[in-house]
C-alpha cells in the first residue's frame, strides 16, 4: 500500500458518520457465521456424557433447524422489512427442509454402509458451512409478490402503448 492510499484510508476513517453517503443496509454476517458453525458445535457437544440435555438438545436443534435455516436465511433487507408472510414462511419451511436433508443424508450413509452419528453430523455441518455464505433461496411468497408487481407494471400504460 502506497503512502497516498494509506492517507486516503485514514481520511475516510476520520470523516464523521454524517458525511458518508447513505447506502443499503449492511448484511448480517454474524448470522451467516452462526449458521456455518452451528453444526460443528453440535458435533462437539457429542463428546459430553450421554443422557445430558447439554448433549442432545443442541444436536436436536441443529438437525431440526440448521440446514434449513442455512438455506433460507438471512433474508435480503427488502424482504426483512416488508410486511407479510416472508418471516413466517421462512420459519415454517426451515424445519421440514432440514429434516428432509437429514433423512437424505442418513439414507445415503446407510446405503454406503458408513453411517455413524459423527459422520452424519459432520456431513450436515459441512453442508451448512458451504451453504451459509451463499445467497438465500427465494421463498414462494416473495416470488409471487415479485410476479404480481411485474404484472401490474405490464398493465400500466406507457408512452409506447398509445395511452
Oligomer: single chain
Major beta sheet summary: none
Q: Which outline best applies?
A: elongated
Give the end-to-end Cα distance, rounded to a whole number of Å: 57 Å
Low-pLDDT stretches are 10-26
Radius of gyration: 23 Å
Query: Helix count, per DSSP?
Result: 7
Helix-residue proportion: 55-70%
Strand content: under 5%
Helix/strand class: mainly alpha
Order of helices and strands: HHHHHHH
User: Which whole number gives the mean pLDDT?
Assistant: 75
State the total count of DSSP E strands.
Answer: 0
List descriptors.
about 160 residues, mainly alpha
Structural account:
The chain is built from seven helices and no strands. Helix 2 runs antiparallel to helix 6, helix 3 packs across helix 5 and helix 5 crosses helix 6. The relative contact order is 0.13. It has 163 residues and is an all-alpha fold. The protein is elongated, with a radius of gyration of 23 Å.
Topology:
Elements: H1 3-14, H2 29-44, H3 53-72, H4 77-81, H5 86-111, H6 117-131, H7 140-155
Helix pairs in contact: 2-3, 2-6, 3-5, 3-6, 5-6
Brief digest:
This protein is an all-alpha fold and 163 residues long. 67% of the residues lie in helices and 0% in strands.
Amino acid at each position: 500500500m502506497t503512502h497516498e492510499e494509506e492517507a486516503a484510508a485514514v481520511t475516510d476513517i476520520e470523516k464523521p458518520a454524517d458525511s458518508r453517503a447513505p447506502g443499503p443496509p449492511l448484511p448480517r454476517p454474524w448470522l451467516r457465521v452462526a449458521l456455518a458453525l452451528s453444526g460443528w458445535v453440535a458435533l462437539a457437544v457429542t463428546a459430553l456424557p450421554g443422557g445430558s440435555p447439554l448433549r442432545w438438545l443442541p444436536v436436536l436443534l441443529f438437525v431440526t433447524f440448521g440446514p434449513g435455516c442455512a438455506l433460507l436465511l438471512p433474508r435480503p433487507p427488502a424482504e426483512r422489512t416488508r410486511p407479510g408472510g416472508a418471516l413466517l414462511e421462512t420459519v415454517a419451511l426451515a424445519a421440514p427442509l432440514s429434516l428432509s436433508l437429514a433423512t437424505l443424508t442418513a439414507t445415503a450413509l446407510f446405503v454406503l454402509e458408513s453411517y455413524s452419528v459423527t459422520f452424519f453430523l459432520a456431513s450436515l455441518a459441512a453442508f451448512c458451512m458451504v451453504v451459509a455464505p451463499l445467497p438465500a433461496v427465494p421463498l414462494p411468497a416473495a416470488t409471487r409478490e415479485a410476479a404480481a408487481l411485474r404484472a401490474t407494471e405490464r398493465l400500466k400504460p406507457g408512452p409506447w402503448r398509445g395511452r
